[in-house]
Design brief:
By secondary structure, the protein is mainly α. The protein has helices at about 10-20, 35-45, 50-65, 70-75, 85-100, 125-140, 145-150, 155-165, 175-190, 195-205, and strands at about 115-120, 120-125. A hairpin with a 2-residue loop joins strand 1 (about 115-120) and strand 2 (about 120-125).
């Protein structure tokens, strides 16, 4: 098998685990992720992707998921992840995924990086985002409510800076981009999905690829 050929066995295992393809099931919608990744692979100069290492990493993730029996149940075991199964949790996860990108810091010292203090602990990276959302909700800021995202009088940049305020002097990375994501998601949900994340999921027929 050449470097340019996919590992069909691994792909089939992933398809089976996600319940897609095979057994007469239709293929999932094309997310264009593979096409974009291929473009990066073929055209990058300063960044290189190691095909063998990528396949090995995918195999390792798959193996560990099976060994540890990872599922939504184990996901919710973490202290900061929502426990209930209701619309509030759906909205929480949607916002969390919407803003879960780029937590790179220019500081080598972890104590100087963007961090959120919550329940007596300081969280960085992905967990800082989850902690910030919890903290905002406890401050009666409806940060996970889609209609709030398009309320120009209430959901202001200043309020969002307060929501994502850091325990250090470094602000949350790409603040403006995250604010744009919040407002855009709110507008699309309001115009196309009755302002409801659940309606969005239902129209996508519960397909992550369609989302």
């Amino acid at each position: 098998m050449s470097d340019s050929e996919p590992d069909e066995e691994l792909l089939e295992l992933l398809r089976q685990s996600m319940g897609i393809g095979g057994s007469g099931q239709p293929a999932p919608p094309d997310t264009k992720v593979l096409k974009d990744a291929e473009y990066v692979y073929d055209n990058s100069i300063d960044v290189a992707l190691d095909t063998h290492a990528t396949k090995a990493a995918a195999a390792t993730v798959w193996r560990l998921m099976q060994e540890q029996q990872y599922s939504f149940k184990t996901w919710s075991d973490h202290t900061l992840h929502p426990k209930t199964r209701d619309e509030n949790t759906v909205n929480f996860i949607f916002l969390m995924d919407l803003l879960n990108f780029c937590f790179w810091s220019e500081h080598a010292d972890p104590t100087k990086r963007f961090g959120i203090e919550y329940l007596g602990q300081t969280y960085t990276g992905y967990w800082s985002l989850v902690a910030a959302i919890h903290r905002a909700l406890e401050e009666d800021i409806p940060i996970t409510t889609p209609s709030f995202w398009i309320d120009e009088k209430e959901c202001t940049d200043d309020l969002l800076r307060h929501v994502f305020r850091s325990i250090t002097s470094e602000p949350i990375p790409l603040f403006s981009e995250r604010v744009s994501c919040i407002h855009e998601a709110g507008r699309i949900l309001a115009s196309d999905f009755s302002g409801s994340v659940i309606d969005l999921i239902n129209q996508a027929n519960h397909s992550a690829a369609a989302l």
